[in-house]
Amino acid sequence: MSTVAGVHTVLPPHAYTQEDLTEAIGDLCLAPGADRALLRRLHRSSGVRTRHLALPIERYARLADFGESNDCWLAVGTRLAEEAVAGALRQAGLRPEDVDLLLCTSITGIAAPSLDARTAGRLGLRPDVKRLPVFGLGCAAGAAGLARIHDYLRGHPEGTAVLLSVELCSLTLQRRDDSTANLVAGALFGDGAAALVARGGACADPAARGTAAGPSVVAVRSHLYPGTERLLGWDVGAGGFRVVIDAGIPDLVRDHLGAGVRAFLAEQGLTTADIGTWVCHPGGPKVLSTLTGTLGLPADALAASWSSLARVGNLSSASVLHILQGIRDAGRPEPGSWGLLLAMGPGFCSELVLLRW
User: Fold this and answer.
1) Given this model, what pLDDT does residue 213 score?
2) Cα torsion for 334, 3, 217, 308, to the nearest 10°?
3) Hey, which bits of 153-207 come out as E strands?
4) Which of 166, 179, 268, 298 has its CA 20 to 30 A from that of 102?
5) How far is CA 266 from CA 58, 151, 272, 277, in A?
6) Inter-residue contact 128 to 97 (CB < 8 Å)
7) Looking at residue 211, what is its pLDDT?
8) What are the pLDDT digits (tens) for 84-130?
């Protein structure tokens, strides 16, 4: 097994209430004089109370094009990335030179050299650190990234791996685009970065596993759903990343995800009733409600996900790490208890990570 030794989330300093953002986002996305009833309804029903943005809200109207937006992603994202990794390493009691693998994921900007290459030297990582930049997994990448560094640590049990997620979703918002998908994204998504440090099984120090110790990863599972490519993702054009969000996502969760979760748990001799801690990506109120009903969970089982959605919005791949940090900060779950971390993303895909504290 691999063990989570630290997790740290960093949010940009520009914080706004949902009410403060509604009309400002309407000014960006809608034509002057356009009806705002749908926009306001989406913002009220989003489950979001506050969000942090990469830039002051008044700055977005002055972004000239995709190139300028991407430059902001790179500048702000690099700063947040450094702070997130440094915080996670401090929490784990490790030094930058202890890191053997850095997996970096983002779906809200792109660069070569990638974010991990640009931050490695600033952080003090070794020149021989292994790097794996990932683009395209979207909201699933936090769970998938944890699963992939677990796979790496199974083969390198004395190693230390870092997962870094940087998502500045506000910089992808399309101006003068009144599509429902763009308005939904403008109501749900927030900005932030998060990093997680994991160590291989040979690094375990039983004497150090106190109340701050994170969970161990026991098993992982990935699943692609054929014929669902247009449910979620980007249409990439001159204006940058134009969001694709299909209304059929809750139906897929209802029809397929529940059976997949139950089968995965059954392979480990478990049922949903054995899971004491749920770390679910907050895709939105409909997805969380559907997941609760499909899995037959108690009404408060996804409380940590609802809380994260309300406090910071949907952070794409960083959300599950933000939720995991919140659970850890609230007090370590009962030793020996089970958790399930799960997320969905473009593909359409799901990622499941079985945890044990």
Assistant:
1) 64
2) 70
3) 160-168, 191-199
4) 268
5) 51, 21, 9, 17
6) no
7) 39
8) 999 999 999 999 999 999 999 999 999 999 999 999 999 999 999 99
HEC string of 122-158? HHCCCCCCEEEEECCCHHHHHHHHHHHHHHHHHHCCC
Q: What is the pLDDT of residues 155-166, one digit of tens each?
A: 999 999 999 999
How is the chain split among helix, strand and coil, in percent rounded to 5?
45, 25, 30
Alpha-carbon gap, residue 334 to 327, rounded angstroms: 12
Tell whether the torsion through CA atoms of 194, 199, 200 and 204 is positive or negative. Answer: negative
Angle between helices 303-312 and 285-295 (to 10 degrees): 180
Single-letter residue type at 229: E
d(CA 121, CA 353): 31
CB atoms inside a 10 Å sphere around CB 269: 7
Active site residues: 139
Gap between the Cα atoms of 88 and 101, Å rounded = 14
The contacts of residue 237 (CB under 8 Å, 6+ apart) are: none
Q: Would you state the pLDDT for residue 95?
A: 96
Please tell me the pTM assigned to this model. Answer: 0.94
CB 102 within 8 A of CB 130: yes
Q: Which two tokens stand for residue 59?
A: 């700055």
For the segment 127-152, the average pLDDT, to the nearest whole number, is 96
Nearest-CA neighbor of 247 among 206, 303, 286? Answer: 286
